Amino acid sequence: MLSYLHSFHAGNFADVLKHMVCVHTLRYMTQKDKPVFYLDTHSGAGAFTLSDNEAQKNREYENGIGKLWALDRANLPESIIQYLETVEDFNTGSELSHYPGSPWFAQHLLRDYDRLSLFELHPREYQTLSKNFKQDRRIHIANSNGFQACISQLPPKEKRGFILMDPPYEVKDDYKQTVESLIKAHKKFATGTYALWYPVVERQRITQMEKAFVKSGIRNIQSFELGLTSDNGSRGMTSSGMLLINPPWTLYAAMEEALPFLAKALGGSDGVYRIQQLVAE
């Protein structure tokens, strides 16, 4: 369908969860001197201006990065501070005017000897992505199917990798395809760290997806969710989640500290979160 544009949703509460997890993971993986391969299967444009018409239409960032930006950072959980400092690096001065996409977080946090592959199928998004990142020799950019890339790019020569899958879920088959693609990818590269973002629109779909991963035989799977309200009887995306395979061993404790705070800060008394070890190591 190729109608989804993330610019309408940049910086919303779902981005806060996704990018906080990404920042924590990338910072953890770059503690070692060994090179890292980063694969972004659905990259989008990679950078957003919050004053643009698309971001201004629903102003979703106001219920995400906008609320966090104004907080006193002295007593915030460490993972939130690190996330906010990284977003701050993307902006000039103290004003929140721009929001980075996942490719920029990776570009910014990875080192000169690391390698990045960005895939985007949407024609307009691909053109913008190329414009934003073509000057970086570490980065390969392709206008092709991210699900297929998840298979074709693995295993990486670096033998260490972080694979982010963030599909638009424009069609219902995307849920099934994400599971199938990640299971195949894991068979080729079992030691990689995989992160899958998903929207909570119909809880049944998420339950089915989690059951499929549990039955796959893959070990060490964790899931984290953050929402503005309970999904019981609600319409639309009330929460979003990140499912990780082989996450950093520090991530679970970091989310135990950060998610309760974020649920209250962004959702007030209606805010919700979920932390679960789906499959043990």
UniProtKB/TrEMBL annotation:
Catalysed reaction, written as an equation: adenosine(2030) in 23S rRNA + S-adenosyl-L-methionine = N(6)-methyladenosine(2030) in 23S rRNA + S-adenosyl-L-homocysteine + H(+)
SUPFAM superfamilies: S-adenosyl-L-methionine-dependent methyltransferases
Residues reported to bind S-adenosyl-L-methionine: H19, H42, S102, E120, N145, G146, D166
Gene Ontology CC annotation, any one: cytosol
GO BP, sorted A to Z: rRNA base methylation
Active-site residues from the entry: D166
Keyword Phosphoprotein: no
Enzyme Commission number, as recorded: 2.1.1.266
Site (Interaction with substrate rRNA): Y4
InterPro entries: RlmJ, SAM-dependent_MTases_sf
TM helices/strands, residue ranges: none
Family named by the database record: Belongs to the RlmJ family.
Subunit structure: Monomer.
PANTHER family: RIBOSOMAL RNA LARGE SUBUNIT METHYLTRANSFERASE J (PTHR37426)
Protein name from the UniProt record: Ribosomal RNA large subunit methyltransferase J
Lineage of producing organism: Bacteria, Pseudomonadati, Pseudomonadota, Gammaproteobacteria, Thiotrichales
